[in-house]
Amino acid sequence: MTDKRFNGTESYIATDDLTMAVNAAVTLQRPILVKGEPGTGKTQLAIEVAAALGKPLHEWHIKSTTKAQQGLYDYDAVARLRDSQLGDKRVHDIGNYIVRGKVWDAFESDSQPVLLIDEIDKADIEFPNDLLRELDRMEFFVYETKQLVTAVHRPIIIITSNNEKELPDAFLRRCFFHYIKFPDKNTMEKIIAVHFPELKKNLLREALEAFYKVRDTPGLKKKPSTSELLDWIKLLLAEDISPETLRSEDTRKTIPPLYGALLKNEQDVHLFEQLVFLDRRNRQ
Amino acid sequence: MLTKFFFMLRKGGLKTSITELLTLLEAMKSGLAGHSIDNFYYLSRTCLVKDEAHFDRFDRIFGAHFKGIEEALGALEAEIPDEWLRRQAELYLSEEERKKIESMGGFEALMKALQERLKEQDERHEGGNKWIGTAGTSPFGAYGYNPEGVRIGQQGSGHRRAVKVWDQREYRNLDDSIELGTRNIKLALRKLRKFAREGAADQLDLDQTIDKTARNAGLLDIQMVPERHNAVKVLLCLDIGGSMDDHVRICEEMFSAARTEFKHLEYFYFHNFIYESMWKDNRRRHAERIATTEILHKYGQDYKLVFVGDATMSPYEIVYAGGSVEHWNDEPGAVWIKRLLDVFPKAIWINPEPQQRWDYTPSVKLTRELMDDRMFPLTIHGLDAGIKRLN
Fold first, then answer.
1. Contact predicate A194/A227, CB 8 Å
2. Paired strand residues for B234
3. How far apart are CA A181 and CA A204, in angstroms?
4. A89: buried, middle or exposed (CB in 10 Å: 19+, 13-18, 0-12)?
5. Domain B232-390 has what CATH class?
6. Which residues in A lie closer than 8 A to residue B51 (C-beta atoms)?
7. Does B17 contact chain A (CB < 8 Å)?
8. How confident is the model at residue A102 (pLDDT cuts 50, 70, 90)?
9. CB A158 within 8 A of CB A18
10. Cβ neighbours of residue A190 closer than 8 Å, sequence gap 6 or more
11. C-alpha distance from A251 to closest chain B C-alpha (Å)
12. What does each C-alpha distance from B114 to B40, B110, B150 come to in angstroms?
């Protein structure tokens, strides 16, 4: 067993099931796959785990063009070609043109690192399959130099996914899995308390009430998530808006102030305004 | 150990593998679950389930399995250490409460009653977990129900966790036979993607350029290729109005997902069934109609044809000339759909009505026969199956 367990940090509230999943991954040294709505803190998790366990963090952000090979190493053939034309001596050692990737860096880290593979679903469908052996055995082969790179310390690998592509079964079998579900009110209060310790109790309550009301609006295309709520509260604080304004039964003010921070879709804003308008008319 | 549970999961439709079971056992051996059944639940879920769509199914199986154990206390030792359950009771209940429970017929009876409550709730409220939350008058009030689950005991709040997390079935709406959202539909439709390079060559083909340059003794020889496009072509015919009003939202989602997903997407509306004409704009449906024959001739065989409709109507509307509810049709709908299917062999019918109800409606049966059984429910699972047929 590892000496330390992850229990959330001062700036990150982890639910029991998340803690369990992370600790299982840390203990058994297997990768953990984290899914969830955008803005629920998937990427943040890796940063916090690294901070809580005092381990170095290596981040590998995946784009649609990323190849699995790039995480391991790149062979810079163009540089070698140029050097050969210029008659540089380095050209005789192919190792000079092998550029290390994030996974290699993590494998050769002095202490056990945390490796974040962010948004793995953005990459090509074959991407996860190309990493099977690397994640399983924590080693890979550099063909150009005939060198086997093995992890000195098996890194804690945290993989996030937005569910844009289905991941292959063989890949899933090798991971622990956690789905970050949207926090309930209690958890949300804790999360906000961590980010805004100075926040007045009643403002928080009113803000949360308004937030969940917006979230419950039927037909929203993109529901506001935790990160949007935090931004919104930041704005409320900056504008020094009183809890009374949020609560306000005054029919002219039923739209929460600064709601642009919560709703990011034009249609949603429109729909929301319409609903508020209808609501107001019904009350009169 | 746990093999019975494992096989139950597999029987329940979860594709849990032996490696995953071994991982779970390994994790338990290293003491991760401790002595808490909640932790065991979380641990087994993170090890065994790799898709949030299956969480609900897992919860149900977990519940059923461990309920069975409660009922057969004798068999308990073989499955989970019975001290788990006893400890749990000790942890969560004070002396006083335990006496109270005894007076109600013991812990098991209480659990059973709770279970019944939860079941009742399932039936009465379709998505709601509110019922229990507001059940202030229930006999269990003393033990404090609250929306996060069935909580027993009020003291030492930090320790008073829900007795049965899995019975809350929080992940219910993620079961892939139930819910659909634009994203989910997009994901399903994405399987239909087929990339091809067509059109003008406007991208540098690096590999070919290098290859050609090398063959050209180092003199630069630039090679270009066309951009990769999704080459799938889709004709989408949507039933609109009447009995379809109940499904407007889900069809809207499907439509908006399909629109962004395919470059070649043509859509047409019809009412109840296909006849000699369809339309593209619902506001001007009477003024601007497009003849079905035109569609037959205009689009090539490589188009995939997707109908979306509940196929719920009078059978006359399908098989008889003049059967349409809106106008006089010279030829029955069945003839028109056959013509369409002849031109577009790759076709499916997606039905937003729940599959259980199909058999009760003769027109659905009829449509299914006309479609050679290529009718699929409008669920993620159904879409998946449908798209497999289209490929």
1. no
2. B265, B304
3. 21
4. exposed
5. alpha beta
6. 172, 177
7. yes
8. very high
9. no
10. A13
11. 28
12. 21, 6, 8
Euclidean distance between CA atoms B299 and B343, whole angstroms: 9
How does the average pLDDT of chain B come out, rounded? Answer: 71
C-alpha distances out from residue B46 to A3, A175, A231, B152, Å:
21, 9, 31, 26
Kindly determine whether residue A166 and residue B27, on different chains, have CB atoms separated by under 8 Å: no
- What stretches of A163-225 show up as alpha helix (H) in DSSP? 169-173, 185-195, 201-216
CA distance B264 to B258: 10
All residues of chain B having their beta carbon less than 8 Å from the beta carbon of residue A122 are none
Nearest to A179 among B38, B55, B147 (CB): B55
pTM, 2 dp? 0.57
The stretch A144-166 carries a mean pLDDT of 87
Q: Inspect the interface and report whether the beta carbons of A181 and B170 lie closer than 8 Å.
A: yes
Alpha helices (H) in A41-96, listed in sequence order: 42-53, 68-72, 77-86
- Closest partner CB to B42 (pick from A16, A164, A184): A16
Q: How far is A7 from chain B (nearest CA, A)?
A: 13
The minimal CB distance from B27 to the residues A27, A219, A221 is found for A27
**Torsion sign across C-alpha atoms B159, B163, B165, B169:** negative
User: How much is the CA Rg of chain B, to the nearest whole Å?
Assistant: 29
User: Which of B289, B321, B328, B307 has its CA nearest to residue B235?
Assistant: B307
Which residues in B lie closer than 8 A to residue A1 (C-beta atoms)? 30-31
- Among A20-29, A170-179, B242-251, the range scoring the smallest mean pLDDT is B242-251
Closest C-alpha among B297, B309, B286, B280 to residue B378: B309
Q: Which of the two residues, A163 and A57, has the higher pLDDT score?
A: A57
- Measured between beta carbons, the chain A residues lying within 8 angstroms of B20 are 173
Q: How far apart are CA B335 and CA B348, in angstroms?
A: 17
CB contact set of B151 (below 8 Å; sequence gap of 6+): B143, B144, B145, B160, B161, B162, B163
Lowest mean pLDDT among A132-136, B105-109, B246-250: B105-109
What is the predicted ipTM?
0.74
Q: Kindly list the domain boundaries of chain B, sorted by start residue.
A: 2-76, 96-166, 195-229, 232-390
What are the angstrom distances between the C-alpha of B42 and each of A22, A166, A261, B224?
11, 23, 34, 53
Quote the pLDDT of residue B331. Answer: 87
SS3 state of residue A101: coil
**Count of A-B CB contacts under 8 Å:** 68
Of all residues in chain A, the one with the smallest CA distance to B26 is A28
A20 touching chain B per CB within 8 A: yes
Strand intervals (E) in chain B: 145-146, 149-150, 195-204, 224-230, 233-239, 264-270, 277-279, 289-291, 304-308, 347-351, 375-377
Identify the band that residue A241 occupies on the pLDDT scale cut at 50, 70 and 90.
confident
What 3-state class would DSSP assign to B5? Answer: helix
Q: Hey, what are A152's tokens?
A: 């000195």
Q: What is the pLDDT of residues A186-216, one digit of tens each?
A: 888 888 888 888 777 777 888 888 888 888 8
Residue of B nearest to A21 (CA): B46
Using the Cβ of A148 and the Cβ atoms of chain B, whether some distance falls under 8 Å is answered with: no
Write down the pLDDT at residue A15.
84
What residue in B sits closest to A165 (Cα-Cα)? Answer: B187
